[in-house]
# Entry
Amino acid sequence: MAKLQVAIDLLTTEEALKLADKVAPYVDIIELGTPLIKAEGLKVVTAMKNAHPDKLVFADMKTADTGALEAEIAFNAGADIVTVMGAVDDATIKGAVEVAEKLGKKVVVDTIGVKDRVERAKEVSAFGVAFVELHAGLDEQALPGYSIQTLINEGKKAKVPFSVAGGVNISTIKDVVAAGADVIVAGSAIYSAEDPAAAAKTLKEAIS
# Structure
């Protein structure tokens, strides 16, 4: 069964922990967004892992260089999973994967900015990454004509372990599941909801 990942795009450790406490019963992976990590530093990763040791803590580092070094720093802070950008040199991804394998952790490749996400997904999967995140960032989602269906179609074509991030909500999650996603990433559908716990529960039930 696909895992549900909550993307926490808040800006303080306190807010992130409060949200995680509400939704933890219904999610498998807790993602700490890049702005949150930049605002609070890796202390937020440590705090989240200490608060929820039974969950996979996903540090959205969006590493673009020194893959091995940044991965090691995040893993030592408590992260179980880190992201490396798919548009970077192969050596950066391979360096992060090498560290992850030594420490029993995981690397995910984020495809923001990648022109051919399907081809790149196939390439980086051969390096030993856990899965590829077919990801439309907030800026891309704001463009006229954006549709999550593009990511869904790419997942079907890539035929590698993948996640979908970029507009997952209760009306789209069934299509993401049907496409074969290993991980389904929900951000604003949870953290912007009037009742985040209820929203997470509804999404989790839609996967089951």
Observations:
- DSSP finds eleven helices and eight strands in the chain.
- The chain has a mean pLDDT of 97.
- The first strand starts at residue 3 and ends at 8.
- The first helix runs from residue 13 to 23.
